[in-house]
Design a protein that fits this description.
- The chain has 1232 residues and is α+β, with helices and mostly antiparallel strands.
- It has ten domains: 72 residues, no CATH class; 193 residues, no CATH class; 101 residues, Carboxypeptidase-like, regulatory domain (Immunoglobulin-like, Sandwich), CATH 2.60.40; 90 residues, Immunoglobulin-like, CATH 2.60.40; 77 residues, Immunoglobulin-like, CATH 2.60.40; 84 residues, Sandwich (Immunoglobulin-like), CATH 2.60.40.1120; 88 residues, Carboxypeptidase-like, regulatory domain (Immunoglobulin-like, Sandwich); 186 residues, Carboxypeptidase-like, regulatory domain (Immunoglobulin-like); and more.
- It has 18 helices and 74 strands.
- It has a six-stranded mixed beta sheet, with no helix packed on it.
- A hairpin with a 2-residue loop joins strand 29 and strand 30.
- The protein is globular, with a radius of gyration of 42 Å.
- It starts with a helix and ends in a 5-residue tail after the last strand.
- About 10% of the residues have low confidence.
């Protein structure tokens, strides 16, 4: 047959196959992508891999499955092929023709050719077939005439042209693929077998699996990352030199990942996919599916490797990151017809894999498919793989089934609601293009923006940008929202945070909200080392509080961190301009951990477009070294050595010799925790000093702790959490590497590398009350805990007189401490609406109490609510009261805008730091004045006090509920400044404190403290601009008993004076007198280790004794009420007045006298500078080393009291020290 005719004959069938393959693959890909999108957060990558394999399998499946017409009518058309013809259908047949006589005469050249009888007979004529087909007569073949007309020359159809081009392309691609594989195989023959340490790790991983005996381990520069090649004889290919950059545990994970490809038969599947892709090289659905399969294959291999890896998520993440770095730096270009560990061309894929490996909140990797996933795959395969054909119904040969009748229904409730935020600056003008982060729980897969635009998806939220008018409008779910937060941190403005807690309390998310940003400043600097060289990669964390909604008094700091560039420069553009200074923390793994610096905005502000120039020095920390061995003395490779240095963390890993090097440690006493797979943890409390000796660890045998949780019916509670709070007296969650652990689906949590002693942990079910501070010790039987329900409080708030609901009110959470003392936590307050509020908590405590505040009503409290009451309802009736409002003006009579008005009630805790209200340590209500200085507070039921602070001054006003509040005029601040000296020289970096004597701690009054802290500058100067007028004392702070959990402080060089309002007071600390030195010696009979860090020295002048108290009659001494009455009467007598006068004189003399304090050096020596002439008493105490890092004092080991005299000197000072010599302590009962 003619080749052209043959190809034309094949072309229509090829074209049908070609088009059907594209359509079918696209349809299956759409189904697979939709299913994966819906279940991707719950399904494993292995399941997704099998799901997307349906796309190539669709192109390989020859199965044809007829479906009933009603079923086929409802399936997508791409899934159904043409049906075969049934025997009862009406068709078109060729009609029978009678035999026709043929003219046999030869044709002349001029004769008109007659139609050939054969050709005419072969041409069918379409007719309708009769009901019964008669027997057809036999058709005789007519003889062919000698000469016939030549038919026209055949040509290629367009389908045939495409088919030929496709065939040549397939042949070329197949040839190239085969040649590449052959060439790579030849090059691979020169590869050398891998050597130790690869072979050691590989042998231990494959010893128990005979199926892996054929796997070979090779080192070759043909690849730049670990890879697998070969189907019959798999080979793991390793780049030379990679082993030296990885630890033993990291190398094991790399090998497990490559072995996972072999165990999963990925190589055979990959070869089949490449062959199929060559045949269907024009099919975009197959290319997309192949890309998705490549990504999911690597994730599935990660899961399988992680499930078999004994290390933790950090070790696996570092292993992957180490390979990525090696591949990025490799000079070779991978020849790679192999399955690589990662795709170096896709940084996004690498980042996603690394994030997934380091995700501590993700469930543990699973290698098994669950029943629902297998059933879902089976159903999808049954629907997608066969080429389904539809049959017509006999009753209705040509009509489709009638669609079902749809009854009219009411319109469904809207699924979304619109939320719009307007962002304005301090001038109330919109801030265009403001940067916004949105956080929503539960998360939202897609965001619809009506105003503003999407920027990117973050780890915790979604980043967006407001439009030119400062507006951002998005759709939120109409129902089901638990939490919603809006964070605005945009250059040139201070940061702002607005959050609404819908799940645990009755916060209502408004439809519209206006955010008022404060003016911001751009701050920056240059970080250098002690030699002045710039340090790159320093993490700079500014300590800035978010501005929040007026009613939100929670404490929330900005978590932003910026890193220094190669020149050591950094800038941060959202520091509130109202601050005088901003604190920052510098952190770098090789330098001193958590280096804290306070930066003056005057000195470190950077103009727009400018470059920071001011230098900040970061010191190198102490380097700890040592060795980790097991209980047999053998080195432990891959052990993690971790230290928590206040808020900074440092970590190192042991090498093959068990040795570690931990850099950037902070001086002082801190704990190091060592963990390793297959061993129990070890802990040592170490005094980090420059001459630190190597610290060695011996890991004990591992123990097992098992915890089960059941509900009230005895059913297991799956996925409860266990997170450590304490081990050996301190928080070692970071060191133990089990910050947060989930139980399995059977409600069992197991830790097989537990210590021998107890750990304190919290047990938290997914829904229910947390079990706090449970003591867990390794033992054979499991601990069994019964979950308890959460506390749900539904509140009803009504008017006492009318019974009507209160439209709007504030709910303040509190706790009853007994003895008429309450803690009211304004940080945990929220709004109620329409006479109702709701509160839910999983955290147990002795009781919960709720205070209700509403404009025009007196405050009222609920009863005490126990944590174990479950779901309850409380009712609060409010009495009407007057609206308590006022105005604050500055000392010169102008409105005091943005003044802080603090409400002081009985026993409330109020703290001011450097003249500003401090969130830390305060439990009270407060308000901020408006533009006219106006404010309003809730109506009170008893005496209270208002403490008002503002940049221009302060006021402290006692009030009663019926008092008429007049205008509050502020008094100007006092200013205190001075110098710190040691001898004649200025002393820099000295910690100073000013304690105000107006602090209130009296019965029936709030506990108010005004604290002032500063650090002397390079020239020894210090200054406070917002000091409350009155009397106060300035001291030096002496630090001792330093440990990981904090430190103890005493005060030295007291200077007490008056601080007049509106005036500047000069204070000098030190600079007169002479130094006093000495050497402390521990008690001779002390038999326990000690550390002079846990000791202190106090020196006080020897002065007159207080006047002797009067003798109280015996009949009233034992009766508190009678004794107080007797004292009141006695103090009114002339003798009582004289006693009070003498006692006040004694206090004034004692107050005026300076007292001194000192820490003790590591060798027992001490030096106290600048003690004036006089007689003094020295008291020293040595404490035991605490068993944990939280408690400062563990009992005294030795004490000493000694009097001495500082002789007169010429002038104000002398450098000649008074040496007290060797001072031997006496035992104090501990360790004697």
């Amino acid at each position: 047959m003619n080749v052209v005719l043959r190809l034309n004959e094949w072309a229509p069938a090829w074209w049908s196959w070609f088009v059907a393959g594209h359509v079918a693959a696209a349809g299956v890909l759409a189904v697979a992508a939709t299913v994966w999108f819906l279940v991707r957060r719950r399904a494993s990558p292995r399941w997704g891999y099998l799901l997307f394999l349906l796309v190539p399998l669709k192109l390989l499946t020859p199965v044809e499955f007829p479906l009933p017409a009603p079923v086929a009518a409802w399936l997508p058309s791409f899934a159904i092929g043409p049906a075969g013809v049934p025997s009862t259908a009406t068709v078109v047949e060729p009609a029978p023709q009678p035999a026709v006589p043929v003219d046999r005469a030869p044709l002349s050249s001029t004769s008109r050719p007659q139609p050939s009888p054969v050709s005419d007979a072969a041409r069918p004529i379409a007719v309708s077939a009769p009901p019964s087909t008669p027997t057809l007569p036999k058709l005789e073949a007519a003889p062919i005439p000698a000469t016939v007309a030549r038919p026209p020359r055949a040509s290629f159809s367009w389908r045939a042209v495409l088919m030929v081009a496709w065939a040549f392309a397939v042949a070329g691609l197949a040839t190239r693929f085969a040649w590449v594989q052959w060439a790579f195989h030849r090059q691979l023959r020169r590869a050398a077998p891998a050597e130790a340490p690869w072979t050691d790790e590989f042998a231990s991983l494959t010893a128990d699996d005979p199926a892996l005996a054929r796997v070979r381990l090779l080192e070759t520069d043909l690849v730049r990352s670990p890879a697998v090649w070969g189907i019959r004889t798999p080979r793991i290919l390793l780049p030379p030199g990679l082993a030296a950059t990885l630890t033993a545990g990291q190398r094991r994970w790399v090998l497990l990942h490559e072995l996972a490809h072999i165990r999963r038969h990925d190589l055979a599947i990959q070869a089949a996919l490449r062959g199929l892709q060559i045949v269907h090289f024009t099919n975009p659905a197959l290319w997309i599916a192949r890309s998705v399969l490549d990504r999911l294959r690597e994730l599935a291999a990660d899961d399988l490797a992680s499930a078999q890896h004994a290390g933790n998520f950090v070790e696996r993440g570092e292993a992957f990151l180490g390979v990525v770095r090696w591949a990025a730096q490799a000079a070779t270009r991978s020849a790679v017809p192999a399955l690589a560990l990662f795709d170096s061309r896709s940084g996004r894929t690498c980042a996603a894999r690394l994030q997934r490996l380091l995700d501590t909140d993700a469930p543990a990797p699973t290698t098994r498919l669950r029943g629902w996933s297998i059933a879902t795959l089976a159903i999808l395969a049954a629907l997608c793989l066969p080429h389904l054909t539809g049959a017509q119904s006999p009753a209705q040969p040509s009509d489709k089934p009638a669609p079902p009748k749809i009854e009219p229904q009411a319109a469904p409730a809207p699924a979304t609601r619109r939320f719009e935020v307007l962002i304005v600056g301090p001038d109330d003008k919109p801030v265009p293009k403001a940067k916004v982060e949105l956080r929503l729980i539960p998360g939202q897969k897609t965001w619809t923006f009506h105003r503003g635009e999407f920027v990117k998806a973050g780890r915790y939220g979604t980043f967006a940008q407001a439009d030119e008018t400062g507006r951002l409008a998005v759709d939120l779910p109409a129902r089901g929202t638990q939490y919603f937060n809006v964070d605005v941190t945009t250059p040139g403005f201070g940061p702002f945070w607005a959050g609404w807690d819908v799940a645990d309390r009755s916060d209502q998310i408004p439809d519209q909200y206006t955010i008022h940003l404060d003016a911001g400043a751009r701050v920056g600097g240059v970080v250098v080392d002690e030699e002045g060289r710039p340090v790159e990669g320093v993490s700079v964390h500014p300590h800035i509080e978010f501005k929040k909604r007026d009613e939100d008094q929670s404490q929330l700091g900005v978590g932003d961190r910026v890193k220094t560039d190669a020149a050591g420069r950094w800038t941060y553009e959202s520091v509130p301009a109202s601050l005088d200074s901003v604190g920052i923390t510098l952190d770098h793994p090789q330098y001193l951990s958590e280096s804290r610096v306070s930066l003056s905005l005057k000195e470190f502000s950077v103009p727009a477009g400018g470059t920071p120039e001011r230098r900040i020095t970061i010191a190198r920390g102490i380097v700890a070294t040592g060795r980790v061995v097991d209980r047999e003395g053998k080195p432990v490779a891959g052990a993690r050595v971790r230290g928590q240095f206040i808020n900074a963390q440092r970590e190192a890993m042991t090498d093959d010799r068990g040795e570690y090097r931990l850099a950037g440690c902070r001086p002082g006493r801190f704990d190091l925790v060592v963990t390793a797979a297959g061993h129990g943890p070890a802990l040592e409390n170490i005094d980090f000093q420059p001459d630190l000796a190597p610290a060695h660890f011996t890991l004990p045998a591992p123990r097992t702790i098992r915890v089960k949780m059941v509900d009230a019916d005895g059913k297991p509670v799956p996925k409860f959490r266990v997170f450590f709070q304490n081990w050996r007296g301190d928080d070692h969650r970071y060191g133990l590497d089990k910050v947060l652990s989930y139980a399995d689906e059977k409600g069992v949590w197991e830790w097989n590398e537990a210590p021998e002693d107890a750990v304190i942990a919290d047990i938290a079910p997914p829904t229910g009350m947390q079990l706090s501070e449970q003591r867990l010790v390794a033992r054979d039987e499991p601990y069994v805990f019964i979950s308890k329900p959460s506390l749900h409080v539904n509140g009803r708030v009504v008017d006492q007189a009318t019974g009507q609901p209160i439209p709007a009110f504030r709910v303040v959470l509190g706790e009853d401490l007994g003895n008429d003392q309450f803690i009211w936590d304004r940080k945990d307050s929220f709004d109620g609406k329409d006479g109702a509020f709701y509160y839910r908590t999983d955290y147990p405590r002795p009781n919960y109490r709720f205070r209700i505040e509403a404009p025009g009503y007196q405050t009222a409290d609920t009863r005490n609510v126990r944590s174990d009451e479950g779901s309850i309802e409380v009712r609060v009736e409010l009495r009407q009261g007057k609206r308590f409002s006022g105005v604050v003006v500055t000392p010169d009579g102008r409105p005091a805008e943005k003044a802080t008005v603090v409400i002081g009630l009985n026993r409330t805790q109020i703290r001011f730091l450097n003249g500003e209200f401090s969130e830390s340590g305060s439990y009270c209500d407060r308000r901020t004045t408006g533009a006219k200085g106006e404010f309003e507070i809730p109506s009170q039921t008893g005496p209270f006090e208002l403490i008002v602070v503002h940049p221009s001054g302060a006021a402290w006003v006692p009030l009663k509920p019926d008092d008429a509040l007049e205008t509050i005029r502020l008094e100007p601040w006092a200013v205190v400044q001075g110098m710190v000296r040691v001898g004649a020289e200025p002393a820099a970096d000295v910690l100073l404190k000013l304690s105000h004597h107006s602090d209130s701690y009296a019965e029936g009054r709030p506990n108010v403290s005004f604290d002032y802290h500063a650090t002397s500058a390079r020239d020894g100067s210090f200054r406070w601009d917002r000091v409350l007028p009155g009397k106060g004392t300035v001291v030096r702070i002496v630090r001792h008993h330093i440990r990981a959990g904090g430190e103890s402080q005493t005060y030295s060089h007291h200077r007490t004076t008056e601080f007049p309002k509106g005036e500047t007071t000069e204070v000098q600390i030190g600079g007169t007198g002479r130094p006093v030195t000495g050497l402390l010696v521990a008690p001779a009979d002390l038999k326990v280790p000690f550390d002079w860090n846990f000791s202190s020295i106090n020196v006080e002048p020897v002065g007159p004794l207080p006047p002797p108290p009067p003798e109280i009659p015996a009949d009233v001494e034992a009766d508190e009420a009678k004794r107080q009455k007797w004292w009141q009467a006695y103090m009114a007598t002339p003798q009582g007045i004289a006693y009070r006068s003498a006692y006040d004189a004694f206090l004034a003399q004692r107050e005026a006298a300076s007292r001194f304090s000192s820490a003790v050096n590591r060798d027992g020596t001490f030096r106290i500078n600048d003690i004036p002439p006089g007689e003094y008493e020295l008291t020293a105490e040595l404490s035991a080393i605490p068993s944990d890092a939280v408690n400062a004092f563990a009992g005294p080991l030795g004490r000493l009291k000694r009097t001495f005299t500082v002789p007169p000197i010429e002038g104000d000072r002398t450098g000649a020290a008074l040496d007290l010599g060797t001072l031997e302590m006496v035992g104090a009962g501990a360790g004697e």
